[in-house]
Each structure stands twice: as structure tokens, then as C-alpha cells.
């Protein structure tokens, strides 16, 4: 019985071609799935109006130096005109309360 060597080589080549085609199809499928997945997976964030307002107020507070210059100017003017009255009893109570908070909580 004679064996056709040319036919065996041809069969092997056909099998290799089929494997290559299958690998190419798999790679194309993987790339297509990856591109579809990238397009489909998009994160989104929505900020509530309260959070937006809080953000604006926080920014405004951080940019502020904490001094109400209008109030300071009014008090300076009232002192210079002799119109600023000090409630000494209330001032004394607040000083005592302040010192008790500082020194009383050791």
C-alpha cells in the first residue's frame, strides 16, 4: 500500500489554516466585545441642588477671612461718636462663662 506524502502535507496545511482562521475570529470577537464594553460602561454622577449650594457656600467661606468688615466699620464709627454702649453685666457673664469653659474642663 502506497502512502501519498504530498496529500499528508496538504492535510496538515489545511488544518493549520483552519486553526489560524479560528484564532483570528476569536481575536476579532474579543476586540469587538472590548470596544462594545468600553462604549457601554460609562459612569455618571449627579449632584443634588443642596450639595451644589453647600459647595458654593464652602468655597465662599474658604475665600473669606472671617471678618465682617461692614460691622467692624459701624462699631468703629459708633465708638468714635460716643454712641457705642457696652453692657458691662453681659460682658462680665460672658467672660466668666468663657473662663469656666477653658479652665473648668481640664
Automatic annotation (TrEMBL):
Keywords: Bacterial flagellum biogenesis, Cell projection, Cilium, Flagellum, Repressor, Transcription, Transcription regulation
Pfam families hit by this protein: FlgM (PF04316)
Compositional bias segments (type: Low complexity): 21-36
Location of the region described as Disordered in the Swiss-Prot/TrEMBL record: 17-49
Stretches assigned to the Anti-sigma-28 factor FlgM C-terminal domain: 43-96
Biased composition (Polar residues): 37-49
SUPFAM superfamilies: Anti-sigma factor FlgM (SSF101498)
Family in the record: Belongs to the FlgM family.
Function: Responsible for the coupling of flagellin expression to flagellar assembly by preventing expression of the flagellin genes when a component of the middle class of proteins is defective. It negatively regulates flagellar genes by inhibiting the activity of FliA by directly binding to FliA.
Name of the protein in its database record: Negative regulator of flagellin synthesis
